[in-house]
Predict the 3D structure of the following.
Amino acid sequence: MPILFFLLAIALHADETCSDWFRAGKIKKGSDCTFECSILMVDMATFRCPEQCHKLCEDIAYTPVIFALYPGLTAAEKELIKKDPKTLYNAYELAREAERICTKTYGVSDINDISDACRHYIWSSKLRQNIGKEAAKQILDAHEKNETQPEDQYIMDTHNNTVGLQDGAKKMSDLELIKKFKQNIQRGKMHVIKK
């Protein structure tokens, strides 16, 4: 078992080292990215990094798109984007999907109301279904690290995220998620400020 943790630590360190190596190479996205990456100078710490060029080149294409689509990201979210832009891009696409579902259901997309509770619940459920509980929680927590958000909104959002994460353990369709959300509302499990 200790060997497994050691190998995992090496793998995580290698990914971070290769990301730093790639950024230092100042490669621009485009058709030559993988080639340019594969010929960067390496040393003993980075000699395996060219094996990751395809992934590293793919990741840089997502970062500007995320920043353009979501200008109000928290500092914690921006840090996560640097580490794994593709996963964060997909996470925010799920947020847009949650907004679409809840707006269709409630006819509005507001804050502190049932549509807001719905968005947090659906997004957190879908995140868990797509990337797992721990990764989903990390993204949701980063999203809520907003210094300007009032405490009552923070409490509402994190509570509804938690319920969504729990229910997201079971794969459900959009209709099943909305049905479960409405059941949770009726049972008093969701937190809504504006009734």
